[in-house]
Each structure stands twice: as structure tokens, then as C-alpha cells.
Amino acid sequence: MNRKSFAVLTALLWLALPLTALRYAQVWDQLPARMATHFNAGGQPNGWMPRETSLYFALGLTAFFLVIFTGLAIVIFRQKPTPDKSSFALLAFFYAILGFVFYVNNGILEHNLTGYPIPVAPLLLGVPLAIVLFVVIYLRGQRGPALPEGQVLAEETHGSSLFAGAFLLFAVLQFWISASIATRAGVGIGLLGVVFLLIAAFAWRGFRYRFTSTGLEISAFGFRLRSIPQSQIAKYRPEKWTALRGYGIRGVGNTRGYVWGNDVVHITTLEGEVFLGTDDPARLVRDLDQMKQYAHS
């Protein structure tokens, strides 16, 4: 895979727009003037809109995702001379999400043509599975080679009980909804609850930073997320992090953040920017100083 393949696959994402319009055009004369467009967890309609509005909404929603996905792809294209496996994994995730959007739009048309309930179970099952699969592939592609064995100089952890509690509540809500729905859709909602539960545990345990004589290793739940050789660290400094930049694992291209709070240490490496969330920026800077001083001793 190369830059040309990445660019072509990104451009092909936009086929979703004319395909959605074509699908509406094929059945336009058969559609009712007032279409059912919103459905409950059991697949039964509980919201309606004019036929023309339904078309505009379907095209607008598709275009919304396309603009976001294309923007992210352009960032990666500019930052990476040769897109790696994680870049193509992200692109595959974009295709999956657009596929789900097309599936929903087509399901709405089928319901209004035939009266059959819209099948929501595949959507509720597919989205969480796609998210989990993408996260695993993407993180493995971003972590770089493991560091050589070296002396451990310091270890720090950074998590958030606040975010853990919030996602735990989301998980409980999903499980409650799942238990109250006696359909296959309930299984999908329950699976989404499992995803929220995993995120809650992830936020509670937090990120682990391991400073050694050979570099910095970032991990979570024992899974190595990133390895940065000490020779690649050019400079670092404490900064403030804003909520608009998000929390958890953030960033695309050569920028990555591991953040659960509003204090970070910004590390500039030879390959990009890394932000380490911390409750004690001064201590994290001292750990980095110690690592760099050990390498030069």
C-alpha cells in the first residue's frame, strides 16, 4: 500500500453520496409522501418526515461523515510520507461507518416500501464490533517496535475516577435497556454496554508510563501502546490540556495524546508530538530529566 492507494481509497469514500441518491431515485415514486424515519429499539416507527426531507437528511448525514473522514485522511496524508497499517485501518473504519449509515438509510426505505420493521440488531451489533476491531488494529500499528531491555528508572500511572464513574453509569444504563427489550436489538445494546464497561475500567486503571535507560514505554492493561526511544526525544514541557481536545487516546497522524485530565507534558520527538496526561507535571518532567541524564552519563 502507498500514498496513491490511500488517496484513491479516500476519494472512493464519496461514492456513498451518489449511491444514496441513486437508491432514493430507484424507489422515489413508490415512497409515501410522509415517511417513517425514526424508530425505537424494537424497530417500530416513532417519528415521521416528508419524503423530500428524508432524502435531504440522508444526503446531509452522509456528507457530514464524509467531510470529517476526508479531513482526517488529509491530515494523515500530509503527515505520513508512506501511510502505515494503522492509517489503512482507520480508512477501513471509515468505510464501515459509512456502510452502516447506508444500511440505515436503505432500511428506512425498505420499511416505507414494505412495512416490515427496520432491522436494528445488525447495526447495534456491528458498530461496537467495528469499534473494538479498529481500536485493536490501530493501536498495534501506532506503538512502534519494543524498546531494548534497560534499567527501570521510574514508573507513573495516570487515570481518572471521574471518567470511570461516568462510563460505568453509561454501561449500567445500556444493560438496563438491554434487559428491558426482549428482542435481538437488546443483545446489541448489551454489547454496547460491555464497550462502555471496558472504557470505564480503562479510565480507572489509566495509562502507565515506564521510564527506562533506553526510553519511555506507554501501556494500559499490560498492552503496550507506544515506545519512544530516549534518543528520539528532542524536548518536553508542561502544558494545559483543554476539554475540546478530548480525553483518552487522542490524535491522528504524528500527534498522539494519552490524557484523562487537564495537565499534560508535551513531548516533541523526531517523529511527532506526544502528550502525556499527569496529575503531577513537575514529577513527570523530573522522570524525563532523569532518563535523559542517565543516557548521557
Textual characterization of the structure:
By secondary structure, the chain is α+β, with helices and mostly antiparallel strands. The protein folds into 2 domains: 3-119, no CATH class; 150-159 and 207-297, PH-domain like (Roll). It contains 8 helices and 11 strands. Helix 1 runs antiparallel to helix 3 and helix 5 runs parallel beside helix 7. The longest helix has 30 residues, at 85-114. The model has no long low-confidence stretch (mean pLDDT 85).
What's this entry about, in short?
By secondary structure, the protein is an alpha+beta fold. 54% of the residues lie in helices and 23% in strands. The protein folds into 2 domains: 3-119, no CATH class; 150-159 and 207-297, Roll (PH-domain like), CATH 2.30.29.30.
Features:
4-stranded antiparallel sheet, 8 helices, 5-stranded mixed sheet, PH-domain like
- Report how far the terminal alpha carbons are from each other: 42 Å
Give the ordered list of helices and strands. Answer: HHEEHHHEHHEEEEEEEEH
- How many alpha or pi helices? 8
As a percent range, the share of strand residues is 15-25%
Number of strand segments: 11
Helix content: 40-55%
Largest sheet descriptor = 5 strands, mixed
Q: Give the spatial strand order of the biggest sheet.
A: 7-10-11-9-8
